[in-house]
Design goal:
Helix content: 25-40%
CATH topology: Aminopeptidase
Number of helices: 6
Distance between the termini: 30 Å
Number of domains: 1
CATH superfamily: Gcn5-related N-acetyltransferase (GNAT)
Order of helices and strands: EEHHHEEEHEHEEH
Bound molecules: coenzyme A
Shape: globular
Length: about 190
């Protein structure tokens, strides 16, 4: 087994490439009820469809940031989840999404992976604003996003479901001026000089 590639890392989480070697694991995480409910998806996906979807995602890298999130507290680092930013080049913005496998939740990995993805989006991809929407009852996600540098900008009413009940969506955004730092991207660039 080769050591996985981790491009930028914090104390608990790191970001590495989205990889065809891990697509079955991505699929497994995505079918967890916590992820289906959090994403508002109502039916499980098939592994065959997910593998085909991966091929499409792998070809679209000009318009998307996609990362495997690693738990870097283990040696070697363990795959823990994925993050993505879907880019709108016309206005230099992007929409953020994240999911972690059930075993990796609740240890600060989601917060740090979110912060590292913002770091990359602002300092490598040069986006001016990253935004997201999250079902308002998803309190753990909202808390993690706030700790990572997102702030609440509003609420869209009656626009989703949470465990069978109609729910609002909380809208959040982050801009480079709010980025708390330190920047793992800057550290990686400056340590190469
Ligand atoms: C949402 C998700 C990415 C968060 O990652 P995580 O590693 O579990 O989150 P963290 O441990 O970094 O932070 C969670 C925070 O929420 C808090 N929290 C957990 N449950 C909570 C609840 N019911 N109410 C309020 N806060 C809660 C935790 O205490 C922690 O805050 P703290 O560090 O101040 O104590 C992860 O849980 C996940 O993948 N969930 C399933 C998919 C999903 O919902 N994705 C988001 C779709 S928009």
């Amino acid at each position: 087994m080769h050591e996985p590639i981790v491009w930028i890392r914090g104390e608990r989480a790191g970001l590495g490439p989205f990889s065809s070697n891990l697509v079955d694991l991505y699929w497994q995480w995505e079918q967890d009820p916590g992820v289906l409910v959090g994403y508002g998806r109502q039916t499980p996906d098939s592994l065959e469809n997910r593998r085909e979807g991966f091929q499409h995602q792998a070809r679209g890298t000009d318009d998307q940031l996609r990362f495997t999130v690693y738990d870097v507290t283990t040696d070697p680092p363990t795959p823990a989840g994925t993050t993505a930013v879907l880019i709108d080049h016309h206005v230099r913005t992007g929409e953020f999404v994240i999911q972690l496998g059930p075993a990796s939740r609740g240890n600060g990995i989601g917060t740090e992976a979110t912060r590292l993805t913002l770091d990359y989006a602002f300092h490598v991809t040069n986006l001016r604003c990253v935004h997201l929407s999250v079902l308002s009852p998803n309190l753990a996600a909202i808390r993690a996003y706030e700790k990572a540098g997102f702030r609440r900008i509003g609420e869209r009413r009656n626009s989703g479901y949470w465990l069978g009940e109609l729910a609002n969506e909380t809208l959040m955004d982050a801009i480079p001026a709010d980025f708390p730092g330190p920047s793992a991207v800057r550290q990686a660039v400056e340590s190469d000089r």
